[in-house]
Amino acid sequence: MRDNFDPKTAVRETPNKMNAEEGGQCPGKTITPLCLPRHFDARWFMEVIALAAIYFLTARLGLLLAVPDGHVTPVWPPSGIALAVILLRGRHVWPGIWLGSFTANLWDFYGSPSSAATEIAASVTIGVGASLAALAGALLLRRFVGGRNPLGRVRDVCAFMALGGVVSCLISATIGMTTLCLTGFAPWSGFGQTWLTWWLGDTAGVFIVAPLGLVWRGAGWLKSAARHVELFACFGSLFAVTYYVFIGNTTILFTGRPLTFLLIPFLVWPAVRFGQRGAASASGLIALLAVWGTIHNAGPFNLGSRNEALLLLELFLGVVVLTALCMAAMVTERDQAEAAQKRAVVELESRVSERTVALTRSEVQARQHLAEAERARAALLSILEDERATEEAREQALSLTRATLESTADGILVVNLEGKIEIFNHVFVKMWRLPDDVLAARDDARALQCVLDQINEPQQFMEKVTYLYAHKEEESYDTLLFKDGRVFDRFSRPQFIGGLVVGRVWSFRDITERTKAEQRLAAFATLGRRLNAVPDAQAAAHIIANLADELFGWDACKLDLYDVQTDSCQSLLTIDIVDGRRQDVSPAYSGESPSPRMRRVMQDGPMLILRENPLAEVNNIWPFGDLNRPSASILFVPVTEGQKVIGALSIQSYKLNAYTQEDLDALQDLTDHCAGALERLRGRDALRASETRFRTIFE
Predict the structure, then answer these.
(1) Helix (H, G, I), strand (E, B), or coil: what is residue 533?
(2) CA 130, 281, 220, 51: dihedral to nearest 10 degrees?
(3) Which end of the chain is more exposed for a tag (fewer CB within 10 A), N or C?
(4) Which of 215-219, 407-411, 569-573, 639-643 is predicted least confidently?
(5) Is residue 27 pLDDT above 60, yes or no?
């Protein structure tokens, strides 16, 4: 599935079967770092031109499978062709991929409002992404599969689909969509949806088209008339059932019912009876009819929006291809194991017969027969062990797939029209901190009342929820602010079944850390300019303290400068809450040696102190401000200019567990950012004091 906006054919590629002769390497003796011949090679030139032409034509033909508006293509065949050619012919033909992608995209850009230079630049960059995707897929397969046929074993099939399809297509989708947005052919607001569409289309092209190119490279394999009859019967039945499920199921029995399960026996048949070629061909036939029916508003997946239909179609095609190829691989592995076992048995019987004839001649010969039989038995056991290992690998892959489908980083909640909670995941429970009795009741209204005291603006929160429940078909996206500082993204959309709204889906994502990081970056962006504008170090200290208050919050703050020559401290700022308000207080020391804690911080680095009992006796500190109210949470960091420690900053809170390790690291970044300015201001203050003393002496 791919979305083109203006460029209807941005290109991608993927891998399949390793070339036995070239092994994915550059041919010839004299090559360049780009794997191109140093001198003109006519054969290479013709291969590149042929690949570019095939790429261009399949790109144009691929648009025949696009949705009626011509912008969404569920399967992008050129991506599969590109990877298959790289695997079969080697890396040296990659210029054909780039050239085909460049011409296909330039053709679609023609006539757009953009300038010719923009169109050419976009086409060049998208072509680079397509080439890199195919090369990356081939490289990954060579690394993890080696020179074997990537469709010959179950684990190799999984590696082919994961590395050659899912992973490598990330490159072309990312480069392509970034290029479209940068050149103005696509809006940045739709980057995520369009990128997903692009990536799924390329991945589907690899899953469906690349296996066809890999398995049909050689000559025919049917040697009897009966096999030809079975072949026609198999694929004729598959065509009829697939056509009925995705295109013809409109005017006869079971109209509009999801009957995709009918395809299972007709998918198993070619995979079991005709191996890899049967599985790949059957998958391609199902994909062709399924895509055609879905984009023409037929079939079992057109139950919701266009994007939902295409996403369901992509998931269906992925499952079909994976099932067919894995089944064919298992059949191949089984046949190979059976053949090896038969060969071992035949060999064993032959040797036993020979040794039996010679048994009457020599006892030594009899012992040799027994030894040979034992070795044959060990070979059989080894074969059986390999089969068990293969089965365990398959079970592990299935378990991993199930675990992946059950996991998500977002909190999910589904509520029906009667206000009952249908579905939720553990992330949702953790984010909203709902008690077990509320979850067991499945009452959405009760759950809402439980979370209102967490929200900064509960009335506005309830008004938005009430509005969305009243307007069932509307979607919504907003940000929630919590009293404890957390920030959630909230997305809501209706749940459809058969075109009717049956409930509402809520999705929540915790963006607290991202929001804090953005706030810190914004504050740091203007901090240097503000510090350069202050007259002295004390004014700079107040700017630093205010910024620390904005980022972390504090009830008390102290900033001291340290003079290593005199081993003394100069207090720039000492603030505490006294009588209910913040005010400057007298420092516990000034012009004296640092406290033991300050000295330890300057020597060993930043310190996070979280006291469970703040009123307990605390040693190695010099208190200041309200002495009857010790701090519960403390961040203490050194102020360092290069390798030189020039002071220390401490912010304190009377709340328990007010700070985290991330806050400590951020405060250290703040002091490192400000250390140079403080050192300059201290030097300027010292120079002014020196000038004043000299002026007094001379006057």
Answers:
(1) coil
(2) -20
(3) C
(4) 215-219
(5) no
Compute the distance between CA of residue 649 and CA of residue 664 in angstroms, rounded to an integer.
11
Global pTM exceeds 0.90: no
The CB density around residue 55, as the number of other CB atoms within 10 Å, is: 30
Enumerate residues 6+ apart whose C-beta is below 8 A from 170: 199
Identify which of 98, 174, 168, 175 has the alpha carbon closest to the alpha carbon of residue 137. 168
Check: CB of residue 559 under 8 Å from CB of residue 569: no
| Kind and range of the H or E run holding 450 | helix 444-451
Q: 299 — alpha (psi -120 to 50), left (phi > 0) or beta?
A: left
To which residue do tokens 């991929």 refer?
Answer: 97
Longest dimension (CA), the chain: 132
Looking at the DSSP assignment, which residues form a beta bridge with residue 477?
A: 491
Helix, coil or strand: residue 608:
strand
CA distance 517 to 511: 10
Q: Is there a contact between 291 and 239 (Cβ–Cβ < 8 Å)? A: no
Distance between alpha carbon 169 and the CA centroid of its chain, in Å? 12
Q: Give the bridge partners for 488, in sequence order.
A: 480, 510
Q: Which of 579, 691, 674 is nearest to 629 (CA)?
A: 579
The number of helices, as runs of H, and strands, as runs of E, in the chain is: 19, 13
Dist CA 423 CA 429 (whole Å) = 11
CA distance 551 to 671: 13
Residues in CB range of 162: below 8 A, 6 or more apart: none
The helix (H) or strand (E) run that includes residue 568 is strand 568-578
User: In terms of Cα–Cα distance, which of 103, 95, 61 is closest to 78?
Assistant: 61
Q: Please, which residues have CB within 8 angstroms of residue 596's CB and are 6 or more apart in sequence?
A: 620, 621
Structure tokens at 30: 């004299």
DSSP per position, 171-211: HHHHHHHHHHHHTTSS-GGGHHHHHHHHHHHHHHHHHHHHH
C-alpha angle with apex 605: 600 to 608, nearest 5 degrees?
90
In a 3-state reduction of DSSP, which class is residue 347?
A: helix
Note whether 397 and 404 are within 8 A (CB).
Answer: no
Helix axes 77-89, 42-62, angle to 10 degrees: 160
Counting Cβ atoms within 10 Å, is residue 92 exposed (0-12), middle (13-18) or buried (19+)?
A: buried
Euclidean distance between CA atoms 132 and 43, whole angstroms? 23
- pLDDT tens for residues 554-590? 888 988 888 888 888 888 888 888 877 888 887 755 5
CB-based burial label for 88 (10 Å; 0-12, 13-18, 19+): buried
Type and span of the H or E element at 362: none
Nearest Cα neighbor of 37 from 102, 95, 81, 88 is 95
